[in-house]
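Colleagues,

Please find the record for the two-part complex below.
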Amino acid sequence: MIHQLIENIKRTNAPIVVGLDPMLSYLPKHLLDKAEKEYGETLKAAAEAVWEYNKGILDATADLIPAVKPQIAMYEQFGVDGLIAFRKTVDYAKEKGLVVIGDIKRGDIGSTSEAYAVAHLGTMTIGSKSYQPFGEDFVTVNPYLGSDGVKPFIKVCEQEKKGIFVLVKTSNPSSGEFQDRLIDGRPLYEIVGEQVAEWGAQHMGDSYSYIGAVVGATYPEQGKVLRKLMPKSYFLVPGYGAQGGKAEDLVHCFNEDGLGAIVNSSRGIIAAYKKEEYASFGEEHYAEASRQAVMDMAADINGALSRVK
Amino acid sequence: MIHQLIENIKRTNAPIVVGLDPMLSYLPKHLLDKAEKEYGETLKAAAEAVWEYNKGILDATADLIPAVKPQIAMYEQFGVDGLIAFRKTVDYAKEKGLVVIGDIKRGDIGSTSEAYAVAHLGTMTIGSKSYQPFGEDFVTVNPYLGSDGVKPFIKVCEQEKKGIFVLVKTSNPSSGEFQDRLIDGRPLYEIVGEQVAEWGAQHMGDSYSYIGAVVGATYPEQGKVLRKLMPKSYFLVPGYGAQGGKAEDLVHCFNEDGLGAIVNSSRGIIAAYKKEEYASFGEEHYAEASRQAVMDMAADINGALSRVK
């Protein structure tokens, strides 16, 4: 699947991923009204509106992007109905040829981590039948519990030819509270990164490993260090746009081959119509606003990349 | 809700929590057969059998225990149908007067962590109606992303009078890979524990905080240190039984008032009928085997506690 991701990035010439993180406040009124007419003021109505919203964005942007990253928390908040919308979104994105990165940040131990891995990347067998419970291509994984927590994901990735991105250095302001603490003079995120590099080297696709890392765009100096530490790991880079990360800040997350990183934007794309810049599209045409925002983001990042070449 | 948990512990005289972590291999054949007859070889059948299995255990043990801890991974592995079984299990346990600790180990940042908190502890408002998406009383939280990830949970806990257990020192063999690394001469788990103590002191119930900690039974010396570091935090203690933790190992997780910790057992209780000790109950009577295992576990832990008094 890392092969597919790289193919998609090369084909679209856009090292970007659209974060499908729908909040109720992002939904255009007409979608919510329509769903409430059908299902009342229910979680099902909200979830249905979320799904319609995603579908519009996918229809408008799928030809321009290699991948999407639905954030499962934004679906869990609508309960079981929200997870039905998550599943429909994953299926539809895959039908469109997109790679789907489930942003689930799961992490547990042994058979529990394996259950998460089966749920999101694997296959559950019931008698003579097999099912993919949620069916993503990649997921994000939290490393705090150590390799007991990560190895079950790697095992399922081997079987299913899928991949993971392990949280190394996240993009949020307080990420340093624990991740930056010094251990023998080196920050924890480097120790974790080193471990990811080791797992990665043992699980290679063609030129890149299918064990990647999450490295925030908001910490450019640290991105540079981590790029050297994990040369074969793909970086999933959050924090561009709304969180303050600029294209110039994240160029060091890429390798000299122009590959090695995929930059996420969520709100900046899916709620583009709410920004002054794209307001002229209007709420009804939110999906076209997203399409324009994708083109602008790709141009911004490709521009920054060409300036460092 | 920390008040309710302590009340339940005092009433039952059993500082234990039953981990409802159903694996397919634990399910008695008659439950799976019945569900497959109705729903075929489907995820829905498996999920329905899981729910029946849980219901049997809850009916047989609810009067003896203060709380249950469903591990959501074991439900996610059956997809949306699994999460319907999770929700039914939470509701049924609450009807029986039990405190429900959702073992979800979520952790993200800002609005995403808030979405998880709403999903599991909070209320989602759609128009004029309000819903509790999953409705647990407590959840477990992963601290790797720092306070940006934990504070949204605390905010929802304040509103809803609920609580969390933050992962500090987990029970698994590799938990030390990152958690034990020394920072200025002190292991990371102490740094995290100190932070939990600080959050906890600001969010007190009566005698204990509603910000607790996960501290594995498998590391007794570390439990002792952490108990002193977080005097007001309740400890959720995994690792007893199947993972190798003994009653003598975990007595130091309790305070002198006999409170302060609640010990989890999952497989040892819910799949007791598979152990030689309880095999005479037979598969059909798996729930009675669980009841006996609960009584034995409570006696074992209370015995160890009385020996250190």
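Chain B is about 50% helix and 15% strand.

Comments are welcome before we finalize the supplementary table.
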